[in-house]
Amino acid sequence: MQQYTVKLKNSSGTGYIIPLGPVNLVCIVTSKGLVGCGAFDVAALATFDYPAARVRPTRSASIETIDDLLDGTIREANKNAEDLGVKTGMSGKEALDLLS
Question: Which residue range forms the structural domain that includes residue 7?
Answer without folding.
Answer: 2-99
